[in-house]
């Protein structure tokens, strides 16, 4: 008897009565039902707001990043169970890897980015602060803070795990409780994931809820501090975006829609070039990976007219080697579509694409399936269509068959290729295969206007390239126009999408207190204890040291030149230096840094363990022979990363603001030093 899936609402599993039947993609056997019981979405939202938000706010950015890492480790240990269930969707092991380990890897990526780039608080300062008055008493800056709302994530059927986790990770970091709504056809895999998450006990109560089946009146109940993200068809995105309540309450809405992505073979590439084979391999991989059920799949293959037949022949050869059937059988390289409904839809779209065009590969009667019972499954042959008049044929730029289907089209000249690419009305990703940097420099800026991501592929990039169809956590995923106009991923940018940005004005002292980051001109704290002698817990933002003075001599410049090997004329040639804007010899900028370190460093062993970088370095006023410099060192920012050394002693990161001035109190150098500071044993 098929299992009835359950929703996870308000901290409990909900649903017992069977409703919509779900069938396995490989053999069309009944495997699950959705539940019939209606969900009380008022309760779900109330639970997210009253329980989820306070629980998430008890953690700071760093605490939530640590929770993501712990969850990723927990899921990775149990990935084989997810692979076993993923098999029912028709996916090969390689397809499932993108979904299962790609999703878990996204958790790892956001945990790492959060620990490196976010503060140990719930206020993210988006500086620098700007002086708004002549006397230094009034300044302004921007902060980002949690919105105090709930995020609703509506996902497509093709990536039931990655689709949820890539949205959940940044919204969780932003302290936004999530309600996940997977596509019904493969919701059983998302349910298995959420059960694992719940059983882990690693997330605060209310951080994640799950909806199996319809969203009912959920969108009608959202408010102005909530957010909706959607992945799926452009038509569904348009319907959701037009929800009256979302419009009336200005609810943030982000769409990532299916699009007619393209790959362009540049005119400089010939069949004898490695780039030609790279192009054919990339197209074939994107046609057959996940049985073509990827929002990033290559749907339009744009090639020079003179190379069309050669590309077609190589593609046919490669596609003919693809074994289709049950992915559990060795040698099978492409599985099934997600459902029989999907199979029928793809067949209907292929019929539309074939009007006036030629079928190069994919005759249904020639498809030979491998495995028992697979003839009842939702399989579809890799299908290649040829269009030789793509500038006059609208269908190839409008119709998307969401399966292993792509259309080969020809062009004359790179400008026509770019025009064909633009006919897709906006897409998630495009690929340009070229060996000529000048071609890339010409084409990419124009292609970037219509595509969310552009991959430039040549023999050099191929060594490490993750491919056309692989969104990465560090880079933006999304595209303009038909692709939805939204953005996901992109590193910490995605976290900022779920935070509220506010401008803040006040005195530098007040801005320091609000942002948790020292703003120049604000009050500092000076005492007899050198800041470098304080453990992480004892340091306070604003702790400061004004050093003694040092007069720069000619011997300093000569000695630094000898040590560094830097004999630049501005430091050593009196005559040449007189003809410059400075009118005299000046000290090396890096000597000024070294001299400043000598002024403020406390040399004895202590809590400061290591200096691992400089940020925002600027040399502002030149230092000449005879000038006298001093430095002010101020604790600018503290980040507790909850790490310990091999002896079990905790550590944190401290950023120090350094201002080096001369005898006229003019700023000569400005920078931040990043140090690792020990906690008390």
UniProtKB/TrEMBL annotation:
Gene3D superfamilies: Aldehyde Dehydrogenase, Chain A, domain 1 (3.40.605.10), Aldehyde Dehydrogenase, Chain A, domain 2 (3.40.309.10), Hotdog Thioesterase (3.10.129.10)
CDD domains per UniProt: ALDH_MaoC-N (cd07128), MaoC_C (cd03452)
Bilayer-crossing regions: none
Domain Aldehyde dehydrogenase stretches: 34-459
Entries under InterPro entries matching the protein: Ald_DH/histidinol_DH, Ald_DH_C, Ald_DH_N, Aldehyde_DH_dom, HotDog_dom_sf, MaoC-like_dom, PaaN-DH
Domain MaoC-like: 542-650
Keyword tags: Oxidoreductase
Gene Ontology MF term list: oxidoreductase activity, acting on the aldehyde or oxo group of donors, NAD or NADP as acceptor
NCBIfam families: PaaN-DH, PRK11903.1
Name this protein carries in UniProt: Bifunctional aldehyde dehydrogenase/enoyl-CoA hydratase
Organism encoding this protein: Pseudoduganella buxea
Taxonomic placement: Bacteria, Pseudomonadati, Pseudomonadota, Betaproteobacteria, Burkholderiales
């Amino acid at each position: 008897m098929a299992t009835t899936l359950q929703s996870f609402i308000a901290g409990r599993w909900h649903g017992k009565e069977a409703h919509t039947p779900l069938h396995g993609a490989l053999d069309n056997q009944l495997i699950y039902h959705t539940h019939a019981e209606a969900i009380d979405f008022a309760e779900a939202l109330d639970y997210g707001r009253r329980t989820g938000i306070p629980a998430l706010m008890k953690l700071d950015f760093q605490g939530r990043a640590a929770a993501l890492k712990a969850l990723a480790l927990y899921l990775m240990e149990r990935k084989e169970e997810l692979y076993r269930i993923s098999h029912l969707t028709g996916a090969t092991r390689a397809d499932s890897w993108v979904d299962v380990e790609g999703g878990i890897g996204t958790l790892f990526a956001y945990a790492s980015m959060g620990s490196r780039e976010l503060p140990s608080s719930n206020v993210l300062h988006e500086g620098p602060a700007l002086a708004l008055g002549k006397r230094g008493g009034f300044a302004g800056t921007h902060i980002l803070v949690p919105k105090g709302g709930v995020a609703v994530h509506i996902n497509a059927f093709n990536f039931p795990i990655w689709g949820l986790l890539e949205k959940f990770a940044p919204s969780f970091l932003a302290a936004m409780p999530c309600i996940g709504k997977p596509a019904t056809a493969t919701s059983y895999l998302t349910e298995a994931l959420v059960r694992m998450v719940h059983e882990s006990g690693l997330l605060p109560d209310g951080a994640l809820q799950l909806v199996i089946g319809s969203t009912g009146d959920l969108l009608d109940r959202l408010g102005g501090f909530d957010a909706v993200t959607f992945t799926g068809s452009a038509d569904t995105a348009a319907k959701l975006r037009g929800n009256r309540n979302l419009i009336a309450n200005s609810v943030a809405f982000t769409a990532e829609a299916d699009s007619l992505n393209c790959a362009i073979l540049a005119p400089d590439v010939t069949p004898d070039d490695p780039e030609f084979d790279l192009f054919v391999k990339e197209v074939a991989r994107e046609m057959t990976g996940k049985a073509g059920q990827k929002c990033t799949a290559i749907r339009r293959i744009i090639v020079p007219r003179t190379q069309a037949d050669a590309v077609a022949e190589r593609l046919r050869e490669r596609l003919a080697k693809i074994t289709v059937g049950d992915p559990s059988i060795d040698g099978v390289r492409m599985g099934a579509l997600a459902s029989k409904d999907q199979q029928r839809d793809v067949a209907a779209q292929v019929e539309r694409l074939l009007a006036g065009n030629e079928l190069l590969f994919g005759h249904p009667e020639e498809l030979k399936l491998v495995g028992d019972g697979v003839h009842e499954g939702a399989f579809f042959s890799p299908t290649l269509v040829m269009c030789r008049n793509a500038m006059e044929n609208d269908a190839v730029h409008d119709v998307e068959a969401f399966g292993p289907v792509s259309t080969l089209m020809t062009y004359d000249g790179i400008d026509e290729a770019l025009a064909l690419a633009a006919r897709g009305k906006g897409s998630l990703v495009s690929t340009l295969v070229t060996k000529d940097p000048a071609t890339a420099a010409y084409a990419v800026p124009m292609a970037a206007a219509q595509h969310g991501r552009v991959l430039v592929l040549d023999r050099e990039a191929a060594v490490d390239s993750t491919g056309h169809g692989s969104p990465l956590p560090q880079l933006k995923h999304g595209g303009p126009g038909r692709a939805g106009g939204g953005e996901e991923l992109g590193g910490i940018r995605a976290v900022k999408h779920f935070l509220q940005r506010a401008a803040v004005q006040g005195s530098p002292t007040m801005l320091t207190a609000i942002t948790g980051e020292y703003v120049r001109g604000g009050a500092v704290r000076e005492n007899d204890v050198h800041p470098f002698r304080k453990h992480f817990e004892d340091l306070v933002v604003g702790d400061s040291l004004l050093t003694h003075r040092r007069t720069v001599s000619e011997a300093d410049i000569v000695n630094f030149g000898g040590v560094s090997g830097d004999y630049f004329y501005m430091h050593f040639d009196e005559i040449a230096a007189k003809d410059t804007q400075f009118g005299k010899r000046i000290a090396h900028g890096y000597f000024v840094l070294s001299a400043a370190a000598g002024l403020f460093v406390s040399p004895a062993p202590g809590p400061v363990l290591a200096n691992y970088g400089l940020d925002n370095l600027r040399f502002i006023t030149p230092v000449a022979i005879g000038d006298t410099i001093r430095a002010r060192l101020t604790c600018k920012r503290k980040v507790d990363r909850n790490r310990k050394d091999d002896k079990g002693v905790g550590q944190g990161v401290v950023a120090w603001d350094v201002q080096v001035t001369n005898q006229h109190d003019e700023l000569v150098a400005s920078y931040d030093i990043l140090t690792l500071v020990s906690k008390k044993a």
